[in-house]
Amino acid sequence: MKQRIVTVETDGPGLYEFTAEAHAFLRGAPAGPALLTLFVRHTSCSLLIQENADPDVRRDLDAFFRRLVPAADDPSMRWIVHRDEGPDDMPAHIKAALTAASLCVPVADGRMLLGTWQGLYLFEHRARPHRRQIVLHLSA
Fold first, then answer.
1. What domains does the chain contain, in order, with CATH numbers?
2. What is the bridge-based pairing of β-strands 2-10 and 130-139?
């Protein structure tokens, strides 16, 4: 078993790739099959495995979620009650609820078995900068 916390600094909504940090964490991992569990320690961002070749994919995903769940000051979101930290607060929680707080990736011989174009992303849903913590946990 091996564990580390990785910090991802964000500067607003969008997808932030941290595949390289996960690869670095796996250096020196024992040979054989294992499972990498990733867990984000926040309720207004999420984790995704997504294409890392074409940046348009990340832009389109971000645009889709902005349209799906607009800010609380949008007229269609008048029903939102929780606004303690601004108009992006509750929408960020909704987006996080629609995505994932944790992911599992199979590992073989110290390497993630991701597909050719797959990468690991923190999906930031808040407008202001944050320092997000992701727990990486390797189980053999």
1. 2-139 (2.60.120.460)
2. antiparallel
